[in-house]
Amino acid sequence: MFKGRTLLLVTKHGKEKVISPILEKELGVKCLVTENFDTDMLGTFTGDVERKDDPIMTARKKCLLALEFSSYDLALASEGSFGPHPSLFFVPADDEFLVLIDKKNDLEIIARELSIKTNFSGSEIRTEEELCEFARNAKFPSHRLIVRRTKNDFSEMVKGIGDKHLLKNTFSIFSTNYGAAFVETDMRAMYNPTRMRVIEKATKKLADKIKTSCPVCETPGFGITEVRTGLPCQICNYPTKSTLSYKYSCLKCSYNREEKYPDGKFTEDPMWCDLCNP
Questions:
Q1: Which CATH number, 3.30.2310.20, 3.40.640.10, 3.40.50.1980, 3.90.950.10, labels domain 1-119+195-211?
Q2: What does the alpha-carbon distance between residue 108 and residue 126 come to, in Å, rounded to a whole number?
Q3: What CA–CA distance (Å, rounded) separates 164 from 66?
Q4: 253-273: per-residue pLDDT in tens?
Q5: Which has fewest Cβ within 10 Å: 47, 74, 136, 168?
């Protein structure tokens, strides 16, 4: 279905470096990066352009807008979110979504990778000592930084800082003018190798999902559409929040199936039970 076709990659942040090799090898497509398409108009991580939609809708819009102004019918875009992990509440997480749209075959295939491997962070900095400590923890200079006036002030900021002298000089200007500066990690993919590796994992998931066809109609993209919790506690048998089963569904026909105990466990440790360990 995809071999020999051109896949439009909707990105301006260098994601093709990890996406193209995988999809060209696994799907037989030829990847082409969009030109003159500003994905930042749909939102930025720094908040100077507000993202009005959720990550999936944003990635979907990127694909559809790029296809509208091209002669191609196959596109892929990604969108990431950063913040507290949904279950490990005080741990920062990188939540990456990839959306592939095939207008020729009326398909939309989505892959997700949720990872705690991220340097995502931001802090108000008042001294050069604090700056150096933050930079060290953020894996600077291999991972670039952003300096701005305050956390919620987007009027003045310097992005993509990857040089020690530039970082110190920029901080000096902000701290002299305002008494402090807000320093944060630059989460754009081309400036954040850790994020790039998460996108690479999401791309491998997408390729595997595309290569998995529905057993009934053979449409690509047969995959998990619902995660059901409720694995019973091994002591009190109370349903926990751990995974009990996966529901797999076809994108085209009505076929679906449930796979119970996908992690190979039939009960959960009582430490994860809200009754045994409230």
A1: 3.90.950.10
A2: 47
A3: 37
A4: 989 999 999 989 999 999 999
A5: 136
d(CA 46, CA 147): 10
Token pair recorded at residue 274? 């809200």
Match 């402090």 to its residue by tokens. 180
Copy the structure tokens of residue 134: 């933050």
Q: Tokens representing 218?
A: 């053979």
Residues 17, 18, 20: CA angle, nearest 5 degrees:
75
pLDDT at 20 over 70: yes
pLDDT digits (tens, 9 = 90+) for 214-234: 999 999 999 888 999 999 999
Residue ranges of domains in the chain: 1-119+195-211, 122-186, 213-278
Q: How far apart are CA 155 and CA 160, in angstroms?
A: 16
Token readout for 135 is 């930079």
